[in-house]
Specification:
The structure holds two protein chains of two kinds.
Chain A lengths: L2 E5 L3 E2 L5 E8 L8 E6 L5 E7 L6 E3 L7 E6 L4 E6 L8 E8 L8 E4 L3 E5 L2
Chain B lengths: L3 E4 L2 E4 L5 E7 L7 E6 L6 E5 L3 E2 L7 E6 L2 E6 L9 E6 L6 E2 L3 E5 L1
The chains are: A mainly beta, B mainly beta.
Chain lengths: 121, 107
């Protein structure tokens, strides 16, 4: 069965960096685009970034553009989110999610359990 | 960016009730619309994609309809396990955007 397991969440100071990982199993990872979605405490869902099946196409939310970088290693079945210049408003649970498609969005079908990032001094 | 507006933001219903949640897009998105269920402390779960297609394993009491700008999610007979927050999401174009959520509570 499809499994997505995030890791790397932590408490960090504003301005610092953090990298999240999402380990995938139960499907052919290199066949699907992958997303990051976040949820601030008590708030709704906010889409963050997407990467195509081969890593050649990436899109970002304006709120993270220039600070966050999504990448993937298909040989390791792992998705990453490098977060730089973190701000208090980046505090959230970060979910990775699989897209049904390879390049253009076809809908998110499976989600990880989430990883909490807290940005605070 | 495409704005997604859900209504109501919350509702109270009884077990066995038929519940309808609406979602409106700020511009036409054809049928590029998904619905998710989220319970407290848990990850979202896919219910519906392509506006009306049921995700594998999701019970048929959930149904979706609509096209263009107006969409609905219907739960035919509300059960205790259905009390949760429901989100719509458009995937017609980036950035992907979610509705604000509808919290379904027990009356």
């Amino acid at each position: 069965q499809v499994q997505l397991v995030e890791s790397g969440g932590d408490v960090v100071q504003p301005g610092r960096s953090l990298r999240l990982s999402c380990a995938a199993s139960g499907f052919t990872f290199s066949n699907n685009a992958m997303h990051w979605v976040r949820q601030a405490p008590g708030k709704g869902l906010e889409w963050v970034a997407v990467i195509s099946y081969d890593g050649s196409n990436k899109y970002y939310a304006d709120s993270v553009k220039g600070r966050f970088t999504v990448s993937r290693d298909n040989s390791k079945n792992t998705l990453y989110l490098q977060m730089n210049s973190l701000r208090p408003e980046d505090t959230a649970v970060y979910y990775c999610a699989r897209d049904r498609g390879r390049i253009t969005a076809a809908g998110l079908d499976y989600w990880g359990q989430g990883s909490l990032v807290t940005v605070s001094s | 960016d495409i704005q997604m507006t859900q209504s109501p933001s919350s509702l109270s219903a009884s077990v066995g009730d038929r519940v309808t949640i609406t979602c409106r897009a700020s511009q036409g998105i054809s049928n590029y619309l998904a619905w998710f269920q989220q319970k407290p402390g848990k990850a979202p779960k896919s219910l519906i994609y392509a506006a009306s297609s049921l995700q594998s394993g999701v019970p048929s009491k959930f149904s979706g309809s609509g096209s263009g700008t107006d969409f609905t999610l219907t739960i035919s007979s509300l059960q205790p396990e259905d009390f949760a927050t429901y989100y719509c999401q458009q995937y017609k174009s980036y950035p992907l955007t979610f509705g604000g959520g509808t919290k379904v509570e027990i009356k």
